[in-house]
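Team,

Forwarding the record for the chain on the shared tracking sheet. I've put the sequence and predicted structure together so nobody has to dig through attachments.
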Amino acid sequence: MAINDALTDVAGLRVGHARVAGGRALTGTTVVLAPQGGVVAAVDVRGGGPATRETDALDPRNIVERVDAIVLTGGSAYGLDAASGVVAWLEERKRGVRVGPDPAQVVPVVPAAGVFDLGRGGDWRIRPDAATGRAAVEAAAFTASGAPVAEGSVGAGTGAVVGPLKGGVGTASTVLDSGVTVAALVVANAAGSAVDPLTGVLYGRYFSGRTEYPRPDVHVAAQLRLAELREQNGPAPLNTTLAVVATDAELSRAQAQKLAGTAHDGIARAVRPVHLLNDGDTVFALSTGRRALAKEDPLALNEVLAAGADVVTRAIVRAVQTAKSVRGPGGTFPSYDELYGLD
Protein backbone atom coordinates (compact mmCIF):
# COMPACT_ATOMS: atom_id res chain seq x y z
CA MET A 1 0.00 0.00 0.00
CA ALA A 2 1.30 3.43 -0.92
CA ILE A 3 1.57 6.49 1.32
CA ASN A 4 -1.98 7.87 1.23
CA ASP A 5 -3.77 4.86 -0.27
CA ALA A 6 -5.01 7.35 -2.85
CA LEU A 7 -4.81 8.30 -6.53
CA THR A 8 -2.25 10.97 -5.66
CA ASP A 9 0.25 8.25 -4.75
CA VAL A 10 0.90 8.19 -8.50
CA ALA A 11 3.42 11.02 -8.47
CA GLY A 12 2.34 14.12 -10.34
CA LEU A 13 -1.43 13.59 -10.19
CA ARG A 14 -3.56 16.01 -8.20
CA VAL A 15 -7.25 15.83 -7.29
CA GLY A 16 -9.67 18.69 -6.60
CA HIS A 17 -13.34 18.74 -5.62
CA ALA A 18 -16.00 21.44 -5.89
CA ARG A 19 -19.62 21.40 -4.74
CA VAL A 20 -22.47 23.40 -6.21
CA ALA A 21 -23.70 25.85 -3.58
CA GLY A 22 -27.29 26.02 -2.37
CA GLY A 23 -29.64 24.39 0.09
CA ARG A 24 -31.29 22.29 -2.62
CA ALA A 25 -28.04 21.46 -4.40
CA LEU A 26 -26.58 17.98 -4.02
CA THR A 27 -24.04 17.72 -6.81
CA GLY A 28 -20.49 18.70 -7.70
CA THR A 29 -17.38 18.05 -9.77
CA THR A 30 -14.05 16.28 -9.28
CA VAL A 31 -10.99 16.98 -11.43
CA VAL A 32 -7.88 14.83 -11.81
CA LEU A 33 -5.11 17.18 -12.92
CA ALA A 34 -2.09 15.76 -14.74
CA PRO A 35 1.46 17.07 -14.32
CA GLN A 36 2.86 19.57 -16.81
CA GLY A 37 3.16 17.84 -20.17
CA GLY A 38 0.12 15.66 -19.61
CA VAL A 39 -0.36 11.91 -19.37
CA VAL A 40 -1.17 9.03 -21.69
CA ALA A 41 -4.89 8.34 -21.35
CA ALA A 42 -7.53 5.86 -22.46
CA VAL A 43 -11.16 5.04 -21.70
CA ASP A 44 -13.55 2.10 -21.64
CA VAL A 45 -17.31 2.76 -21.51
CA ARG A 46 -19.56 -0.19 -20.59
CA GLY A 47 -22.73 1.36 -19.21
CA GLY A 48 -25.77 1.59 -21.46
CA GLY A 49 -26.49 5.26 -20.75
CA PRO A 50 -23.19 7.18 -20.60
CA ALA A 51 -22.81 10.96 -20.40
CA THR A 52 -19.34 11.66 -21.78
CA ARG A 53 -17.22 14.25 -23.56
CA GLU A 54 -14.02 13.88 -25.63
CA THR A 55 -13.84 10.12 -25.12
CA ASP A 56 -13.34 9.52 -28.86
CA ALA A 57 -10.14 11.55 -28.64
CA LEU A 58 -8.67 8.79 -26.45
CA ASP A 59 -9.02 6.09 -29.09
CA PRO A 60 -5.44 4.87 -29.79
CA ARG A 61 -6.14 5.29 -33.51
CA ASN A 62 -6.65 9.03 -33.11
CA ILE A 63 -4.23 11.92 -32.88
CA VAL A 64 -4.31 13.07 -29.24
CA GLU A 65 -1.26 11.63 -27.48
CA ARG A 66 -1.66 13.10 -23.99
CA VAL A 67 -4.27 14.92 -21.90
CA ASP A 68 -3.95 17.40 -19.06
CA ALA A 69 -7.05 16.64 -16.99
CA ILE A 70 -10.00 14.32 -16.50
CA VAL A 71 -13.35 15.63 -15.28
CA LEU A 72 -15.82 13.55 -13.27
CA THR A 73 -19.03 15.41 -12.60
CA GLY A 74 -22.57 15.27 -11.37
CA GLY A 75 -25.45 16.65 -13.39
CA SER A 76 -25.59 13.95 -16.07
CA ALA A 77 -25.16 15.41 -19.59
CA TYR A 78 -25.84 18.93 -18.28
CA GLY A 79 -22.92 18.65 -15.88
CA LEU A 80 -20.44 18.05 -18.70
CA ASP A 81 -20.42 21.84 -18.95
CA ALA A 82 -17.99 21.70 -16.01
CA ALA A 83 -15.26 20.61 -18.44
CA SER A 84 -15.47 24.01 -20.15
CA GLY A 85 -14.18 25.67 -17.00
CA VAL A 86 -11.24 23.27 -16.90
CA VAL A 87 -10.49 23.87 -20.59
CA ALA A 88 -10.42 27.64 -20.01
CA TRP A 89 -8.11 27.27 -17.00
CA LEU A 90 -5.69 25.13 -19.01
CA GLU A 91 -5.75 27.47 -22.00
CA GLU A 92 -4.76 30.37 -19.75
CA ARG A 93 -1.66 28.35 -18.84
CA LYS A 94 -0.91 27.38 -22.45
CA ARG A 95 -1.56 23.72 -21.69
CA GLY A 96 -3.10 21.56 -24.39
CA VAL A 97 -2.55 20.24 -27.89
CA ARG A 98 -0.36 22.70 -29.78
CA VAL A 99 -2.12 23.77 -32.99
CA GLY A 100 -0.12 26.80 -34.11
CA PRO A 101 3.27 28.53 -33.97
CA ASP A 102 2.29 30.67 -30.98
CA PRO A 103 2.65 28.78 -27.65
CA ALA A 104 -0.75 30.20 -26.69
CA GLN A 105 -2.38 28.43 -29.65
CA VAL A 106 -3.45 25.28 -27.86
CA VAL A 107 -6.60 23.20 -27.63
CA PRO A 108 -6.88 21.52 -24.22
CA VAL A 109 -8.43 18.07 -24.59
CA VAL A 110 -10.33 17.35 -21.38
CA PRO A 111 -12.25 14.05 -21.36
CA ALA A 112 -15.21 14.06 -19.00
CA ALA A 113 -17.96 11.80 -17.75
CA GLY A 114 -21.04 12.53 -15.68
CA VAL A 115 -23.12 10.67 -13.12
CA PHE A 116 -26.88 10.99 -12.90
CA ASP A 117 -27.79 12.89 -9.73
CA LEU A 118 -30.36 15.31 -11.17
CA GLY A 119 -32.89 16.39 -8.58
CA ARG A 120 -31.21 14.52 -5.78
CA GLY A 121 -31.11 17.67 -3.69
CA GLY A 122 -34.69 18.53 -4.57
CA ASP A 123 -34.16 20.89 -7.55
CA TRP A 124 -33.82 19.32 -10.99
CA ARG A 125 -32.34 22.52 -12.48
CA ILE A 126 -29.27 22.60 -10.25
CA ARG A 127 -26.19 21.03 -11.81
CA PRO A 128 -22.46 21.76 -12.16
CA ASP A 129 -21.36 24.31 -14.74
CA ALA A 130 -18.12 25.82 -16.03
CA ALA A 131 -17.60 27.71 -12.77
CA THR A 132 -17.83 24.44 -10.82
CA GLY A 133 -15.24 22.85 -13.08
CA ARG A 134 -12.92 25.80 -12.68
CA ALA A 135 -13.27 25.67 -8.90
CA ALA A 136 -12.41 21.96 -8.93
CA VAL A 137 -9.32 22.31 -11.13
CA GLU A 138 -8.12 25.24 -9.05
CA ALA A 139 -8.58 23.14 -5.92
CA ALA A 140 -6.48 20.42 -7.55
CA ALA A 141 -3.76 22.86 -8.64
CA PHE A 142 -3.47 24.36 -5.17
CA THR A 143 -2.85 21.01 -3.46
CA ALA A 144 0.65 19.78 -2.78
CA SER A 145 2.01 16.88 -4.78
CA GLY A 146 1.06 13.62 -3.09
CA ALA A 147 -1.62 15.25 -0.92
CA PRO A 148 -4.38 13.09 0.61
CA VAL A 149 -7.69 12.98 -1.28
CA ALA A 150 -11.00 13.84 0.38
CA GLU A 151 -13.50 10.97 0.16
CA GLY A 152 -17.18 10.39 0.67
CA SER A 153 -19.84 12.98 -0.13
CA VAL A 154 -17.54 15.39 -1.94
CA GLY A 155 -17.10 16.64 -5.51
CA ALA A 156 -18.79 14.44 -8.08
CA GLY A 157 -19.86 12.14 -5.24
CA THR A 158 -21.83 14.82 -3.40
CA GLY A 159 -25.18 13.46 -4.59
CA ALA A 160 -24.10 9.92 -5.44
CA VAL A 161 -26.11 6.90 -4.31
CA VAL A 162 -25.47 3.17 -4.60
CA GLY A 163 -28.79 1.39 -4.74
CA PRO A 164 -30.68 2.73 -1.71
CA LEU A 165 -27.47 3.75 0.10
CA LYS A 166 -25.52 6.98 -0.05
CA GLY A 167 -22.52 6.68 -2.35
CA GLY A 168 -19.62 9.01 -3.00
CA VAL A 169 -15.95 9.32 -3.88
CA GLY A 170 -13.41 6.70 -2.84
CA THR A 171 -9.76 6.13 -3.63
CA ALA A 172 -7.10 3.45 -3.13
CA SER A 173 -3.58 2.57 -4.27
CA THR A 174 -0.93 -0.13 -4.14
CA VAL A 175 2.78 -0.48 -4.84
CA LEU A 176 3.74 -3.63 -6.72
CA ASP A 177 6.90 -5.65 -6.03
CA SER A 178 8.36 -4.06 -9.16
CA GLY A 179 8.00 -0.62 -7.55
CA VAL A 180 5.19 0.40 -9.91
CA THR A 181 2.30 2.29 -8.29
CA VAL A 182 -1.29 1.61 -9.36
CA ALA A 183 -4.16 3.67 -7.96
CA ALA A 184 -7.81 4.47 -8.52
CA LEU A 185 -10.39 7.13 -7.75
CA VAL A 186 -14.05 6.18 -8.07
CA VAL A 187 -17.39 7.98 -8.01
CA ALA A 188 -19.76 5.25 -6.80
CA ASN A 189 -23.28 6.06 -8.00
CA ALA A 190 -24.70 2.71 -9.08
CA ALA A 191 -28.15 1.37 -9.88
CA GLY A 192 -26.97 -1.93 -8.41
CA SER A 193 -26.21 -2.63 -4.77
CA ALA A 194 -22.88 -2.67 -2.95
CA VAL A 195 -24.25 -4.81 -0.11
CA ASP A 196 -24.72 -8.58 -0.02
CA PRO A 197 -28.39 -8.98 0.96
CA LEU A 198 -27.64 -12.29 2.69
CA THR A 199 -24.99 -10.98 5.09
CA GLY A 200 -24.86 -7.16 5.01
CA VAL A 201 -21.20 -7.31 3.97
CA LEU A 202 -20.05 -4.92 1.25
CA TYR A 203 -19.40 -7.09 -1.80
CA GLY A 204 -15.98 -5.50 -2.25
CA ARG A 205 -14.91 -6.60 1.23
CA TYR A 206 -14.95 -10.24 0.21
CA PHE A 207 -11.82 -9.55 -1.84
CA SER A 208 -9.89 -7.81 0.94
CA GLY A 209 -8.86 -10.92 2.85
CA ARG A 210 -10.58 -9.63 5.99
CA THR A 211 -14.37 -9.72 6.24
CA GLU A 212 -16.28 -8.55 9.31
CA TYR A 213 -19.86 -9.75 9.36
CA PRO A 214 -22.58 -7.58 10.92
CA ARG A 215 -24.64 -9.07 13.72
CA PRO A 216 -27.72 -10.84 12.31
CA ASP A 217 -30.14 -8.54 14.16
CA VAL A 218 -28.36 -5.45 12.83
CA HIS A 219 -28.53 -6.83 9.32
CA VAL A 220 -32.25 -7.63 9.57
CA ALA A 221 -32.99 -4.13 10.86
CA ALA A 222 -30.93 -2.59 8.06
CA GLN A 223 -32.73 -4.62 5.38
CA LEU A 224 -36.12 -3.58 6.75
CA ARG A 225 -35.06 0.06 6.74
CA LEU A 226 -33.79 -0.17 3.16
CA ALA A 227 -37.03 -1.80 2.02
CA GLU A 228 -38.98 1.10 3.54
CA LEU A 229 -36.76 3.61 1.78
CA ARG A 230 -37.13 1.91 -1.59
CA GLU A 231 -40.86 2.37 -1.22
CA GLN A 232 -40.49 5.94 -0.01
CA ASN A 233 -37.92 7.09 -2.59
CA GLY A 234 -39.61 5.43 -5.55
CA PRO A 235 -37.98 3.67 -8.53
CA ALA A 236 -34.19 3.73 -8.80
CA PRO A 237 -33.11 6.57 -11.10
CA LEU A 238 -30.49 6.49 -13.81
CA ASN A 239 -27.03 5.96 -12.33
CA THR A 240 -23.36 5.61 -13.22
CA THR A 241 -20.09 4.52 -11.62
CA LEU A 242 -17.03 6.42 -12.82
CA ALA A 243 -13.39 5.57 -12.20
CA VAL A 244 -9.93 6.87 -12.96
CA VAL A 245 -7.24 4.20 -12.64
CA ALA A 246 -3.67 5.45 -12.90
CA THR A 247 -0.13 4.15 -12.83
CA ASP A 248 3.41 5.45 -13.06
CA ALA A 249 4.27 2.51 -15.34
CA GLU A 250 5.13 3.53 -18.88
CA LEU A 251 2.16 2.43 -20.98
CA SER A 252 1.33 2.86 -24.63
CA ARG A 253 -2.13 4.17 -25.46
CA ALA A 254 -3.22 0.65 -26.39
CA GLN A 255 -1.94 -0.72 -23.08
CA ALA A 256 -3.74 2.06 -21.22
CA GLN A 257 -6.95 1.12 -22.99
CA LYS A 258 -6.48 -2.48 -21.87
CA LEU A 259 -6.03 -1.24 -18.30
CA ALA A 260 -9.26 0.76 -18.52
CA GLY A 261 -11.09 -2.34 -19.71
CA THR A 262 -9.84 -4.77 -17.08
CA ALA A 263 -10.40 -2.19 -14.33
CA HIS A 264 -14.14 -2.61 -14.95
CA ASP A 265 -13.75 -6.00 -13.26
CA GLY A 266 -13.18 -4.05 -10.06
CA ILE A 267 -16.62 -2.46 -10.38
CA ALA A 268 -18.22 -5.85 -11.04
CA ARG A 269 -16.74 -7.25 -7.82
CA ALA A 270 -18.08 -4.41 -5.68
CA VAL A 271 -21.49 -3.64 -7.24
CA ARG A 272 -24.18 -6.02 -8.47
CA PRO A 273 -25.53 -5.79 -11.08
CA VAL A 274 -23.34 -3.49 -13.19
CA HIS A 275 -23.19 -2.10 -16.73
CA LEU A 276 -26.97 -1.90 -17.05
CA LEU A 277 -28.90 0.14 -19.59
CA ASN A 278 -29.54 2.79 -16.93
CA ASP A 279 -25.86 2.94 -15.94
CA GLY A 280 -23.13 4.88 -17.70
CA ASP A 281 -20.18 3.02 -16.18
CA THR A 282 -16.95 4.57 -17.50
CA VAL A 283 -13.31 3.97 -16.59
CA PHE A 284 -10.43 6.25 -17.61
CA ALA A 285 -6.84 4.96 -17.44
CA LEU A 286 -3.83 7.25 -17.03
CA SER A 287 -0.09 6.61 -17.31
CA THR A 288 2.54 9.10 -16.16
CA GLY A 289 5.25 6.89 -17.71
CA ARG A 290 7.84 7.36 -15.00
CA ARG A 291 8.70 3.65 -14.63
CA ALA A 292 9.49 1.38 -17.57
CA LEU A 293 7.99 -2.08 -17.64
CA ALA A 294 10.38 -4.98 -18.15
CA LYS A 295 10.75 -5.11 -21.93
CA GLU A 296 12.08 -8.67 -21.84
CA ASP A 297 8.80 -9.85 -20.30
CA PRO A 298 5.86 -9.65 -22.74
CA LEU A 299 3.45 -10.24 -19.84
CA ALA A 300 4.84 -7.54 -17.55
CA LEU A 301 1.63 -5.55 -17.99
CA ASN A 302 -0.42 -8.29 -16.33
CA GLU A 303 0.40 -7.29 -12.76
CA VAL A 304 -0.67 -3.72 -13.53
CA LEU A 305 -3.94 -4.94 -15.03
CA ALA A 306 -4.70 -7.13 -12.01
CA ALA A 307 -3.84 -4.34 -9.58
CA GLY A 308 -6.04 -1.88 -11.46
CA ALA A 309 -9.13 -4.00 -10.86
CA ASP A 310 -8.16 -4.51 -7.21
CA VAL A 311 -7.76 -0.82 -6.40
CA VAL A 312 -11.07 0.01 -8.12
CA THR A 313 -12.82 -2.52 -5.86
CA ARG A 314 -11.20 -1.07 -2.76
CA ALA A 315 -12.01 2.48 -3.85
CA ILE A 316 -15.71 1.62 -4.16
CA VAL A 317 -15.66 0.14 -0.66
CA ARG A 318 -14.07 3.35 0.59
CA ALA A 319 -16.67 5.47 -1.23
CA VAL A 320 -19.55 3.67 0.47
CA GLN A 321 -17.86 3.55 3.88
CA THR A 322 -17.00 7.26 3.97
CA ALA A 323 -20.29 8.60 2.56
CA LYS A 324 -22.59 10.63 4.80
CA SER A 325 -26.34 10.11 5.08
CA VAL A 326 -28.66 12.48 3.21
CA ARG A 327 -32.25 13.37 4.08
CA GLY A 328 -33.97 15.96 1.95
CA PRO A 329 -36.62 16.75 -0.63
CA GLY A 330 -34.80 14.59 -3.18
CA GLY A 331 -34.99 11.49 -1.02
CA THR A 332 -33.52 9.79 2.04
CA PHE A 333 -30.27 7.89 1.48
CA PRO A 334 -28.63 6.52 4.65
CA SER A 335 -24.95 5.76 4.82
CA TYR A 336 -23.66 2.23 5.26
CA ASP A 337 -22.12 3.34 8.55
CA GLU A 338 -25.48 4.59 9.82
CA LEU A 339 -27.13 1.24 9.11
CA TYR A 340 -24.34 -1.10 10.14
CA GLY A 341 -21.92 0.92 12.26
CA LEU A 342 -18.85 -0.83 10.83
CA ASP A 343 -15.52 0.75 9.94
